[in-house]
Automatic annotation (TrEMBL):
Protein name: Phosphotransferase family protein
Gene3D superfamilies, sorted: 3.90.1200.10
Pfam family, one: APH
SUPFAM superfamilies assigned to the protein according to its UniProt record, in alphabetical order: Protein kinase-like (PK-like)
Aminoglycoside phosphotransferase domain mapped to chain residues: 19-220
Record-linked PANTHER family: CELL CYCLE REGULATOR CCRZ, PHOSPHOTRANSFERASE YTMP-RELATED
InterPro entries: Aminoglycoside_PTrfase, CcrZ_PhaseVar_Mediator, Kinase-like_dom_sf
Organism in which the protein naturally occurs: Halobacillus salinarum
Amino acid sequence: MKVNWLEHILGDNWTITPAGGSTGEAYYAHTEGKRLFLKRNSSPFLAVLSAEGIVPKLVWTKRLENGDVITAQEWLEGQELNTESMKHPRVAALLSKIHHSTELLDMLMRLGKHPLTPDEILRDLKENQRILDQVDPSIEIHQALKFLEKHVVEVHHDVQVVCHCDTNHNNWLLSSDDQLYLIDWDNAMVADPALDLGMLLHTYIPKEDWKQWLEQYGIVPDGHLYERMIWYAVSQALSFIQWHKMRGEYDEASIRTESLKRLMIRQGII
């Protein structure tokens, strides 16, 4: 979206700057002590997330003549969590709140999100990999796909919740008034909670602390949960590698491939 469209909405006394991100559709705006985070075509899901206190407050929503929807949220002073602070019980508590929210689940289902199954995830990964193999085959990725194929039947699970699908520390915001938020919900899905838990714990939490962290989250872990967590951690790692390669971001894809390799070595997959 052109910045001058935003100037038309806000007025020319606002300073508007791109906020970065993968879509290029987000902006910061400020004027005389007022500050907003603006985004084009955010999901209606944002209103429920705001009401639940999971993202910064939604200030207003405007529909343009061309059908585009602009949302404005509070732009808060704060900081992203670092890798160490991901161990804090508040992270477990907020993720548990999200996974146990019937309001979030009902809204996402009304928006047409059907539960994502392991079979669908595997099929999409294999289809994308056939394309990528034409230019950049990778032994680690094929080893990961074989692992996912071997265990796909074992990881089916009846409980489906709202999953953020990218619990990277950069998406956790601690505001200056000590409120914790989980932001960037563009890829949210209805899925097994192990999808979020797998990548988060395998990335940030020492294995000897998993039981305590999951008890803070609100469950007593068992072997089946751990099996599902490693399956989803591998599948998400593959998904991010493919995404970066399709965008031509080969350095980032290589970094994530090395992380995937370390994950599979730790788990005895390779």
